[in-house]
Specification:
This protein has 7 helices and 5 strands, in the order H-H-H-H-H-E-E-E-H-E-E-H. By secondary structure, it is of the alpha+beta class. It folds into 2 domains: about 100 residues, no CATH class; about 80 residues, OB fold (Dihydrolipoamide Acetyltransferase, E2P) (Beta Barrel), CATH 2.40.50.140.
Length: about 190
């Protein structure tokens, strides 16, 4: 049987919990946005966005519970909504960060070349939505063989075939970042 003092002790978070929960939340955000090298974050952006978002969600609930426990019965629903929103907010800003990096990288260090399509893939999701990509192989400016995965639209999927040569732009700093050079593709001069 528990005494009233034991119940009161369980209900009140310790000072360590009050410090640890927000500290881990801040470290989580710092880790995903600053410590993971950006070219790795870009390569696995969806995975990191989901993983970081879920960790942020859990740490948000823990932080809210430890810091606002006495008043949660009054402000519980807004806090709950804010904690759930942290999942989506984290994912949105992480994807935004990695997308900006890819665009900036191609603008600063982009090199035009031709590549051979070595594979195509289409992933089917719910409600008939699909994600398409092509894997390409090319030789970089240092005469090293490189490969990259390029996302493409649904309408483009059937027009690209394995073995086809296409013009691309890749980053000289991070060759796994590449995109199709549509201007050259349309003109046929590559």
């Amino acid at each position: 049987m528990t005494t009233p003092n034991e119940v009161q002790l369980r209900e009140k978070p310790s000072l360590i919990q009050k410090i640890l929960a927000p500290a881990l939340l801040i470290f989580n955000i710092y880790f995903f946005f600053e410590l993971i090298p950006i070219h790795i974050a870009e390569a696995y952006s969806t995975l990191f966005a989901i993983l970081g978002g879920v960790i942020t969600l859990i740490l948000s609930f823990w932080t809210a519970d430890t810091l606002f426990r006495p008043i949660l019965k009054y402000i519980g629903i807004p806090v709950f909504i804010l904690c759930i929103a942290s999942l989506f907010i984290f994912g949105y800003f992480f994807i935004l960060k990695t997308t900006s990096f890819s665009s900036d990288e191609l603008t600063k260090n982009g090199i035009q070349t031709t590549a051979v399509i070595i594979d195509k893939s289409r992933i089917y999701g719910k409600r008939g939505r699909t994600i398409q990509s092509i894997d390409v192989r090319f030789t970089d400016q240092n005469q090293q063989r490189q490969e990259a995965t390029i996302d493409i639209g649904d309408s483009e999927y059937n027009s690209f075939q394995t073995g086809m040569v296409i013009p691309i732009m890749y980053s000289s700093e991070h060759p796994n970042i590449a995109r199709i050079s549509y201007e050259k593709l349309r003109s046929g001069n590559y």
